[in-house]
Amino acid sequence: MIVDFSIAPIGHGESLSRSVAEAYRIIEASGVRHEFHAMGTNLEGEWDEVMAVVDACRLRLLETCSRVSISLRIDDRKGAPDRLGRKVASAKAKAGL
Amino acid sequence: MIVDFSIAPIGHGESLSRSVAEAYRIIEASGVRHEFHAMGTNLEGEWDEVMAVVDACRLRLLETCSRVSISLRIDDRKGAPDRLGRKVASAKAKAGL
Amino acid sequence: MIVDFSIAPIGHGESLSRSVAEAYRIIEASGVRHEFHAMGTNLEGEWDEVMAVVDACRLRLLETCSRVSISLRIDDRKGAPDRLGRKVASAKAKAGL
Amino acid sequence: MIVDFSIAPIGHGESLSRSVAEAYRIIEASGVRHEFHAMGTNLEGEWDEVMAVVDACRLRLLETCSRVSISLRIDDRKGAPDRLGRKVASAKAKAGL
């Protein structure tokens, strides 16, 4: 499955960049396949491994703030691994772009 | 934490009511505190118990279809249990409604 | 269409209740059909009227903070008006609850 | 503001690639700054121009199906234009990646 994951502390000032950097380090160290984008990170893997990464980011942020907001959008398709790098190229080709 | 949870099969016809009914039964049987609303269900509990309910719904839907879409919006606030029934009343009071 | 709408200022402290109260007043005064729930508000109407309410809440919050986060999940179904009050009851009935 | 935008027809079979291709063409032709990613498209611009693109995609899909699901996550920050290409690089730099 692919998960579009976004996390932010609530009540920690307008800049979220320190929290985003913490999450980036956890994601990068996790070994889970991923693509950062401007509004979140797409993670690809099985339920347990992807959710472990999300939970680790959540627990890390809760060490330094007391409220966290998380958004997850999941696309789970049986028998369709390794879609992360191909979805955009495939859609662009179909669109003739 | 409170999670706004929504799940739908992809490619199973325009009516989603059978899948929603399956999810309702799993949620109701789980014992996890919840409130159904028109666009999803708010679940309240610890990470592990809430995610177990979401995963059970996911696995049930994948028995009869091959692609599932899930949306989760999480509000995790330390030391703030039992907010589910009080958030709307509290906001209405503050709004003078 | 039905829209699950959530809005929050970023960097304004941990409590969001004042902003939520502002949004509640705008929604209530708009005349657009709605249901508040613990994680957002379901709005029902045509694209233009629903989006006008969302935009009004956005502009109001930006008067007192400089960064706002909004989540919208839209279910747009042709020829299906007045679903807001009936969706949960219908799903519960199908689930035998 | 930046908007993470995702759209899908409901009840049109498991493959969404034709609809995604239609949306890609509309987005590309709109002139609005954007980045496609595996789970959606990040659009950057003022409220009116971004929402016009979303509405155009919605209306196009409703020509060939009768139910559409849309997700929008908006990050609206005053005085912060042209963030689309810089957010990931900035977060990576802060994370030391």
How would you portray this structure in words?
The structure is a homotetramer of 97-residue chains. Chain A has 97 residues and is α+β, with helices and mostly antiparallel strands. Chain A has one domain: 2-Layer Sandwich (Alpha-Beta Plaits), CATH 3.30.70.930. In chain A, 39% of the residues lie in helices and 30% in strands. The first copy, chain A, is built from 3 helices and 4 strands; from the N terminus they run E-H-E-E-H-E-H. Chain A has helices spanning 17-30, 47-61, 87-95; strands at 2-9, 33-37, 40-44, 67-77. A 4-stranded antiparallel sheet of chain A has the order 2-3-1-4, covered by helices on one side. In chain A, strand 2 and strand 3 (40-44) form a beta hairpin. In chain A, helix 1 packs antiparallel against helix 2 (47-61). Chain A starts with a strand and ends with a helix. The interface between A and B is medium-sized, with 20 and 20 residues.
Question: What topology does this entry show?
Answer:
Four copies of one chain form a homotetramer.
Chain A (H helix, E strand, L loop, with lengths): L1 E8 L7 H14 L2 E5 L2 E5 L2 H15 L5 E11 L9 H9 L2
Antiparallel strand pairs in A: 1-3, 1-4, 2-3
Total strand segments of chain A: 4
| Biggest sheet details of chain A | 4 strands, antiparallel
Annotated CATH architecture of chain A: 2-Layer Sandwich
The CATH C-level name of chain A is: Alpha Beta
Could you report the average pLDDT of chain A, rounded to the nearest whole number?
93
Largest interface: A-D, 36 and 35 residues
Key descriptive features of the protein:
alpha+beta, 3 helices, homotetramer, about 100 residues
